[in-house]
Every structure is written in structure tokens, then in C-alpha cells.
Amino acid sequence: MATSGARDQEPAAGAACPQLVERERETAVLRELVRRTASGRTGLVVVKGPGGIGRTALLRVLAQEARRRGLRVVETPGARVRMLRFGAQDAAGADGRALARVGRSGAAAGQVRVPPASPAVVASPHGPLLTYRQVVGSATATRPTLLAIDDADRADLESVRALVRMLRTRHDLPVLLALGWRDGEEPAVPLEWVTRSMLEVVRPRPLTGAGIGTLVRRLTDGTVEAGFQADCLAATSGIPSLVTGLVAGLRELGLPLTRAGLEAAGGEDIPVFGARARRLLHGQSPVAVRAAQAVAVLGGGTPTTTGAGLARVETTAFTRSLRRLEAVGLARASGPEAWSLAHPAVRTAVLTGTPPRIRTDLHGRAARLLHDSGAPADTIAGHLLGSPAVARTSWARTVLREAAGTAMLHGAAERAVELLRSCVPPGHEDACDPVLVMELGVAESRVDPEACIGHLTSVLGRLTDPGLRLPALSALVGALTRTGRTGRAAALLAAQDTGSPSGRARLQLLEADMLIAATDSLGACASLLETVSLGLDLPGATPEERALLAGRAFIATSRTERVPQALAAARRVLGAATPITDSPVTLAAAAATLTYGDRPADAAHVYQQLLEGTDGVPERLRAGLLALDGEAAQRLGRLDDALRTTAEALGPAPGPRFSHHQALALAVRLHALLDRGDAAAARDLAAAVPPEAVDDAWQWNEFLGARGRLRLVLGEPGAAVADLAECGRRQDLWQRTNPAVSPWWYWAGHAHLAVGDRAEAGRLATRALDLAHACGLPVAVGSALELLASAGDGPGRLQLFGDAESVLEHAGAPLALARARVARGRALLRAGHTGQARTVLRPGWQEAHTLGARTLHDEAHALLLDAGARPRRPAARGRGELTRSEKQVARLAATGRTNLQIAEVLFVTRRTVEVHLTSVYRKLGLSGRKELSGALGRARSGDAPPRHVPEV
Questions:
Q1: Predicted structure pTM score
Q2: 552-557: Cβ within 8 A, 24+ apart
Q3: Quick one: how many helices (H) and strands (E) in the chain?
Q4: CB 524, CB 517: distance < 8 Å
Q5: Is the pLDDT assigned to residue 672 strictly greater than 60?
Q6: Buried b / exposed e along 429-458 (16+ C-beta atoms within 10 A)
């Protein structure tokens, strides 16, 4: 045979066929063909399929089976572009170097040299056929032969036809011709094949999910996660070479073979897999390559018309090319007239293989196509960033500014900065539109304060419109404050014109912005609080006054300064403010003041209104509102609501980077999980926070406190004391000394009790009690009394427990009350007062069940049994126990409707409404209609499932 790569291999003794995955049908066909050839029959088999499907592996199986049955095997190496160029010119040019090994080894085994083609043979149209007759005839002289040719589609078609014609005319030859043939857009197989009865076509199928699992297990000798199995199928479409490439690539990157490991690869080109995907792609037609590049640039769901326009081909050719790519596992239809690449990893591979110049050109043309078709600005902007030359045009700057505004509205300041910086070349700010530079500076205020200060300082003098100067000044004051330059920020405020009502209003608003900005920086907070006034006597008649008053009240309450006056100020703000006239920041600051004043029910109502009724709340602020709302819910014992809102604040896949708002959500979620008795989930959540994520923001103080409580629950009191002590130290630095701000001191006291330090626990309780008494903080007073009683050992200890319970009964903190009752019951039982213990423990046991505090309920249950009680199933309590009719009535009553109005809406009698409301009050533990709104929570939160405790 006229190829130096052809080789004849003898069977190895005892060799077995390699085991392929999900190829039982195909290998059975091949074995049968070998059996027929061994019995003296001629055969032709085409192993046909897309690249990477496993044609070569099946040909290897065929060759090994042939050796096992004693056939002579002549193979050609795979993936050679000119492997079968056996035309007359090539045969003559080979100069006799081509040979077929027909013996066992070397010349002694009988090497048959193929003679050089004579000029007459070269000129003859049958020259190739004559040459093949000599080779095949020599090979089959002694025994049946397998002639296996991989990638035969890359050979010249005339040579392949010649081989087929030879088999057709020489029925006496015991030869099995096996051709590996890759699917292509051109006519694949000579038409005369389909009329031959000897022809067998074997089409290996893509692997199923189960097959992928089997293959991965064989490659790794380990188990396969179901999620990874599904994602691997999506990424590879079951093409075996892509599956093995993906596994090898992830292992090369040091990533686990799990769904999380595949996601962790992100936009990175996965080794081996990416190379194989590109090899498959570039084995297709140039039109298919351009179509894939267009879809990769445009992203998932590319409309056919847009993709074809970007690829510069007709829509029919574009669709045909994508269908070819779908057949080889690189693309998929994502709609009737839309296409996507098979997986983000495939898209990354295609983009990586696209030369930078072509990729830049594609992004620029994609931006124009999308702009002309009316696509959203943020979609177009992504392409403009990939094509800097186009981004500098006037229409592109307009699009980028619009997209940046949308990003700011959704709290994506980093994205807005990236978009606007492409419009403002560094060093050319003076030549740019001052409004554009101002927009960039405002976006940079939280992302890059130094750049913000530079840009806004340079452009402030060119802004004459008061409507533009105010946001610029606000951002500049905030950036200066966050970077610790409070003196310069104060100087800016002092320079403002206050001779007119509008000037005074602007000054108040800027001062409010400075106060809020100071809560983001420990250094700024410390220096600012030494210089600014926290006067709480403003009437709150204007939105600007209310903004300043809310900021002052929040800081004053945190510092335990004039807490009653701060609470009154917050109520003035909320009484006069509306979501239309006042900023959500103003309303949130006033509500947080109520939370820190031990009025979480009132605060929760405000948070719910903000989250439900205010349009245009930035995503960054929304995350903070969710965290604060979760904190209020957790304090009220609404653990389901707390877990739901904190989950939304953290997002579907939290970490490893957390914003300050998410740090607060983490802390609240840890407390709620521990209240629910789910220490394992709390441990996993805390473990997901890397140490470097904890910075000096006050929100991380709360996380440290919650983690300290977790460690106490896990039986690590020493580690708990360390975390809680650090939390307390940081709270003092931030001047957050109000005991109602954070429960760190309560859990620190119990941690000290766990290590046997009653004195330190008593000191913490006494300090909190003194502050809480002075400020009128009922929940903090009751909790401090309970901790003080737990730390004491004198005769007055039981009285302190009783005082704690009495205070908490009217504080609107059912979880703290249940905790105090269980602690008192435990103390009474140890003192031998079993009757009193049962009396105290029963309501605590019932309340813990109602709230879903499983650990506390179990503890109360055990204590009741020790006290000789026989506790039965608790009465139905909680929102999850409300009937459908009771929920309808309660929701309408919470909106302010009278009983008569509710009866008319629901077409029932007034008496029926009264009965339902009475049942609602009993099940929710409410005293009246005013408490309904807070107890019901947001309608979007859903209803918790009923809780049942087995009867004992």
C-alpha cells in the first residue's frame, strides 16, 4: 500500500478487546464482520460519525478482534491529511518506499515491496487500482486480512473508490475493508456504496448521562456527583473526546470533578477540553467557524438573523452550519429561531481560539447590529467594551452612559465605572463633557474614592446647574468622608450658600450624606463624631431635614446618647415621610433607630413598606434593607422570615466575597439558624467565609458575635469567648455601645459561664443592665436580668429570673421571653420548686414550639419531664397554623379595613369575621389588630408549614 504509515500487526497472545462505554451494539456488529471475513467472505464497513465520537476507538476494537481471530491487520495512522493520496502521481513519487508488512517481522518475515509505478501505470486511469490489487493480493495470499483506514474522508475520493471497486470485482479475497469516516457538509460516502449488500454502516451514538458517569468513574476510580454528570453532558453533548478532555482539563486546573468545580472554572479556558473543542470546530467548514464565532460573541439565545448578519452569511447557511455544530456537540438550538453554544466552557473555548483582531471586529459590528435592532443599552455596552475604537464614537458614548445609569440603579457601581471610563480617556478629562466626568466621579464614589475625588474636584467648577452640582457634591463629600478626610468634607459643607431656603436644604442633605458615609469607615466615624452636632430638635418638616434627623438619630441611638429623644425623632421622620418625597436611606435609618431602640415590630413594618412599595430601590440598598428586615424578624422570633430575607440578601451562591450588607445578613442568618436548632447549617455557613473577608466594617462585628455564639453551641467555649471578646472590642471602637444594638454581650456572658468565669459574666450583665435601664430598652433589660441571674449564686437569683420574665412579657420579644422562662424553670427545678418550675416551663415550651426554636423547645421538654410533667402536643400556634379563611381575614384587617368592610369583601357575616380574628389573635399570640401587620410579615414571604411535636 502506498503509504509509509501503513503497518501490519500480529495479535498479542491472550489479548482482549478494549472495553468501551455504551458501544455494545457497535462492537457486536464489528465482531460479526470479523467472523465473516475469517470464514473467507469479503466485507466493507464504514464507521461514520462526527469528530470525537469515537470512530478511532471502534477501529481499534475491530483490529484487536481481528488479531484475536487470526486475521492479518493492516492499519493506517489516524488524523493524517494525505494518508490515502494513492493517485498515480503519489504512487510514482513514493519511489518504492511504500510497503506492507505481511510477515511476522522484518525481511525474514517476508516483506513485500510495492514496486514503483511505471510510466505506463502512472498514465493509466487504472493505475491506483492496479497498485491496490498488488498490495491486497499479497496481504491475503496466506490468510484473511483486515484493512483499516481511519479518517478516510480526508483522502482523495478517487483512491477510496478504487478500493471499493477492487473489492467488488474480487469476491474471492477474504478482506474486510474498514473505513473511519467523519460526517461533513460535503457528500460523504461514494454513492455506489449504498447499493452493495456487503456494506455495513456503524454510527456510534453520543454517550448518555449514565454513560458519562461510567466513563468518568473509569478515568478517576471514584464516584461521580450527579450534578457534575448532568453538567458534563450539557457541556460535551455526550461526545467522548470532549468528556475525557473536560475531565483531564479540570484535573489539570486542580478543580474537583463536581458541579462546583466546573462552575469554578468560570470564564477560564479549560485545558485539553478547549483544545479539543477548537479542533472539532476547525474541522468544519469556514462558514461554520464564522457562525460559531458569531454565536460566541453574541452569547446564548442568538437570533438567527442577528447571528447570520454578524457572520456575514445567508440565514439558511447560518442555520445549516449551526445544525452541523449541533451534531458534533458544539451548539444547540435555544429556541425556534435562536442558537447558543453547547455550554459556557465551549463558548470560552471558541472565544479563546478567535484571533484578537477578529474578536475586536466582531464585537464592534455586534454592537452596531444590536443598536440598530433596538437592543437594550447594557447588552450593547458589553460589546463596545470589547471594541475600544467603536466605543469612542458619539453614538457609542450615548449607549455607554445609558447602560452605566442602569447599572447604578441596580447597585452595580463597578460595572458603571468600567463603562464610563471607556468614554473618558485618562488624562483627557478636561476635554470631555463635564457632565460625563461628573457621572464617572459619582459612580466611582464607592468603588474608587480617590479617583472620585480627583474627577469631581476637577469638574465641580464647570457644573453650573444646581441639579448637577448637588449629586456631585454629595458623592464628593461621601468619598472624602470614607477616606478619612472629614475636615475637607466639612470645609465643603461650610462653603455652601445657606442664605436661601434651598441652600439650607442642600446643606442639610449633604450633612446627612456625610453622616451615612461615616458609617462605612471606622476612622471617618471616629473623627466625624468628635466634630459634628447630633442635635435632635429639628422638626423634620422637609425631606432634607428628615434625612439629617434620621442620620443623627441612628448614630445617637447606637452610641446610647439620648435614646428616648432619638426614638421620638425617628417617629417624627416616619410620621411625615413618604416613599415619594423621601429617600429610602432616610426611611431605613429611621427604622434602624427603632430596631436599636428595642422596637423591632415598628421597624419591620417600615422595612416591609420599603421592600414592597418603593420603586427604583438600588440593588445595593436593597441588600441592606433585606439584612435589616431579617434582623428585625429574628428579634421578633419570626425565624422563617429571617431565613428567607437573609437568603435573598446573600444570593443563590454566596461568597467568597461579601459586601458589608451581606456581612450583616450572614450574622442574622447564623442567629436564626441557631435559634432553629440547625447548628450544622450554621457551621457550614460560617465556614464559607474566608478569614480575609472580615474587615473593620461594623457589620463584620455582628458576624463575629454570631460566630462566637455558634462556637458556644458547638462546645468550643474558649473559641467562643475569643470571638465575642473581639466583637465587643470592635463595638467599643465604633462607639456602638447600646446593648440593644447587638446581643454579643449576652452570648459572651454565657460563654464565660461555660468556662467557669461567673465574675466576667456578671460584669457584662451589669454593664448592659445599667445602660438599658438608663435608655429604656426593655428587651435588653430583660435579657441582662436573665444573664445576671444565671451568673449569680445567691438567694436573690430566683427573683432576678422572675424580674426578667416580667419585663420581657411586655417587650414584644417572644423568643427572648421563651428563653428567659426556660432559664427560670431550670433554676426553679434545681432549687427543688418542681411545681413552680412546671408552671413556668409550660408557656416557655409552648412559645418555643410556636416560634420554631427546636433546641429551646427540646430543652424545655426535657426539663418538664424532669419536673414530673407529662407534656402533650402544644396548641396550634403560629402563622403556619392559620386556616385559609383566617389568613384572608387577617391580611385584610392588617391593611386597616374594619370588620364590616372585611365582611363585605369576603361575602360573610360580621360575626364570622370577629370569630376568625379572635382565632388569629390566639394563634399568633397577639393582643389586638395593631400587631397584625408586623406578625403577618410580607405577603411574599409565604406561610410557614405547621409545626407538630409528637405527643409525649
A1: 0.66
A2: 552/515, 553/589, 553/590, 553/593, 554/515, 554/519, 554/589, 554/590, 554/592, 554/593, 554/596, 555/515, 555/519, 555/529, 557/593, 557/596, 557/597, 557/738, 557/741
A3: 47, 11
A4: yes
A5: yes
A6: beebebebbbbbbbbbbbebbebbbbbbbe
